[in-house]
Amino acid sequence: MVASRGFTDDYSPALMTDMYEYTMLDAALKDGTANRNCVFEIYTRHLPEGRRYAVLAGTGRILDALAHFHLADEDLAFLRNRKVISEESAKWLENFHFSGTIRGYREGEMFFPDSPILQVEGSFAECTLLETLLLSILNYDSAVASAASRMVSAAGSRPCMDMGGRRANEWAAVSAARAAVVGGFKGTANLLAAKLYGLHAIGTAAHSFTLLHDSEKEAFTSQIDALGVATTLLTDTYDIESAVKTAVEVAGPALGGVRIDSGDLASLAQRVRNQLDALGATNTKITVTNDLDEYALAALQTAPVDSYGVGTMLVTGSGAPTCGMVYKLTERENSAGIMQPVAKRSKNKGNVPGRKLAYRSYEYNLADCEHIISGSEDQLATYEPNDDWRNLLVDYVVNGEVNNEYQGNDAIITAQEHRAQALHELPITAQSLMKGDPAIPTEITIL
Known about the structure:
One of its GO terms (biological process) is NAD+ biosynthetic process via the salvage pathway. It is built from 16 helices and 19 strands.
């Protein structure tokens, strides 16, 4: 029986991978190609059906993971015992540290089909080991951030909060909370995410707390005594009208808020608002929950709601739980030591060879095109974009040195602000919830 291990520190990101990455490493070390310099690229061939844009999230988590991307002795023993790697590979892996370069779109940036979201350069041995980890982080986090962004747009000025932890894998719940904030959410119910990333934590009581007590009044009194009158009371365990009356009776007109978790939310919110005002609780806020998505939020725009709690549809990407990103080799050193562009030619799965530059052009302060420039390192070094093009790439890791600017709570908030600004710069059709083409076209130039 395997002993239980910790949640984060005891699991190596270097094992959060597919076996073939290690078998490729082993074969490449044996045939002498492992040290060939390579450039890998992450991109998506298409957005989820009908989506106008997507939001990049997860790059900060990648940088966190890189710091722990190494194998303990017991992990190496596991790989040897399973005949995944040879002794030669085990020796090579003993002191592994990624020494390459990673550049890509900044967290919170909009991306489209063929956007070079992340480019990883280094030896084949180093780069191939990162494939699954990078894709699993970016595919999921970006799906959640993209859904969150659509929800935030639909909610208007009303804040959205993450309440999706119980609807996802326990690990996914933490990353979803972070990605939701990148996408524009203002807080999370997940305490581990709040601790790890410095996020605002929210939460008061569930229906079980009301059912625990002999009466709703006793439950409300207990919560007020514990948390103060600024708390939010859950009002739909029994009868909402009676609960609102009791809530104000217990807390007084200074009651912080009430939450509605069932029924026709728009109609109930209107009735509750009128009732609260009649009872003198004119500043008491109304929060609604109950399987909300961007379409439900849009339908609630005229209802007197102050904030939203979103769960299932957030952590599942609102129907698009992955962004379909892939990790492809686009340039590699050949046997003569010369860097050579390469590409797949598979039907419907081909990719653009070569390393990339990425820009966005604007007209009247609105983005009108994504420009992807592909070529050799020398060609890209002398390429001169138009004056009104904005460079979309930043350096995350240079020769193994991580840029800490893109980690931690400040980086998350910066990414949240960047998402808002980048979305504002897209044509307004980007915020439409109706199915359509990407908000701007992508133009690819091969030098």
